[in-house]
Amino acid sequence: MYVRRVSELSAQGAKVVLRGAIDRATAMGVPQCVAVVDTGGNLLVFERMDGAKLHSQFSAIQKAFTAISAKAPTGQLPTELAFGIALATNNRFATIAGGLPIELEGEIVGAIGVGSGNDEEDIEVAQAGIEALQNAIAHHA
Amino acid sequence: MYVRRVSELSAQGAKVVLRGAIDRATAMGVPQCVAVVDTGGNLLVFERMDGAKLHSQFSAIQKAFTAISAKAPTGQLPTELAFGIALATNNRFATIAGGLPIELEGEIVGAIGVGSGNDEEDIEVAQAGIEALQNAIAHHA
Amino acid sequence: MYVRRVSELSAQGAKVVLRGAIDRATAMGVPQCVAVVDTGGNLLVFERMDGAKLHSQFSAIQKAFTAISAKAPTGQLPTELAFGIALATNNRFATIAGGLPIELEGEIVGAIGVGSGNDEEDIEVAQAGIEALQNAIAHHA
Amino acid sequence: MYVRRVSELSAQGAKVVLRGAIDRATAMGVPQCVAVVDTGGNLLVFERMDGAKLHSQFSAIQKAFTAISAKAPTGQLPTELAFGIALATNNRFATIAGGLPIELEGEIVGAIGVGSGNDEEDIEVAQAGIEALQNAIAHHA
Question: What InterPro entries does the annotation carry (chains A, B, C, D) (predicted)?
Fold first, then answer.
């Protein structure tokens, strides 16, 4: 087929993800940068909490881009391969954890990237963002 | 709504666009670079004909990205404004002609960018690519 | 003095600005990209509304950076000078309108950048964001 | 709160830090590049001593940016993680030693980055810069 019908995260959906992530980071007491992108890897929403690292404003976006690009969590490839991809793509591939694809009913509709905490903290916050959207949709159904 | 249903140009559709553009350029005797992107601005297919300018491999992609980004043909803004946008986006905006959004039944599903000829040649080739897809779909219906 | 006491827009304040801007853009029916930065020019919050131009995700941030950098609205210098500054700063200076510093009680605490509409639309949305914050502070006092 | 009151290193303060660092480097006989940034990571003062390495003009600034961004000395993370962050931030994160945050009375007000010597020399010079400011403030009190 020449054209596919696909599901695309909206700005409204992205804000639900962002809110869920920020709420979890707040509860954890860990300031974070959170970015949400659509299926094309373009930024929908972003927030840097007070006290989050400055450089994480860039890595959060890069992690989200990588998660949608690879349709997989970031930070899971062997290091040498991951670095090689980062170099080969002129830094359009994050090698570190904190990016997760956002899946709804078996379809990936966008991705979230979180940075400023450690790996476990970043992943927990990203996962909380995704769950917030899944919960919001379940309650609407 | 949290998720939107959208139409997205497939690789197969992009190849029909590319074929139509290359066929026209061949008939015109003007070697061209042709790029086709999806709605997120990511490259689907590309071809540089023998003899096409090397730098046009970059401008063709940039024109396609700009056409989908702005959902409008490239090269139509007043020069000062267009240059200003190019600078403000760190060169993610082509100011010159040759990029066209690909519209099907009222929905924009991707874009084509053509470079290496003059403005008229580039636009004619881009338009031929789009028409090839529209014709293919009409014949399938 | 070796150290100055300054006022800095918080993430909470930035969200009030963003909300005011998005509300105005929604009322105008013009999809926009909106970015808010702190006094150091680092991104605090961002939103791209459904339908806003992809390249404006970059120019909105650049406009906000430029407004805080110059402590003045963007797009007001003579074109040649503005382009010269953009080139001299490796594109860390937006030459086009849509960026405004955020002033509270005579002190600039951050900036907002808006892109995807025309100049007047971008400026109106940016101004609405600033007014939302000023109103919120007035009501808290 | 919408606005936070924060302490920000002034140009005068930065010059005290720079002077202290350069004096130490001179006493050590090691030519250095020294950069001092504010809390937003923007350059306040810089000096490249005669004979210091040319590339260190860039790494000294990057180290200072990284130290304020992470609010921690540079060069302390495991190599793989540090390299991963550098790649994910498009080289806005220095992985090597020589950057230190400048802390005054429990508040971080800026950062210093030093490059051209070895790790120990860079750190010693950076520390001397910070101590010069702390001493100047103690004498003023």
Answer: GlcG_carb_metab_protein, PduO/GlcC-like, PduO/GlcC-like_sf
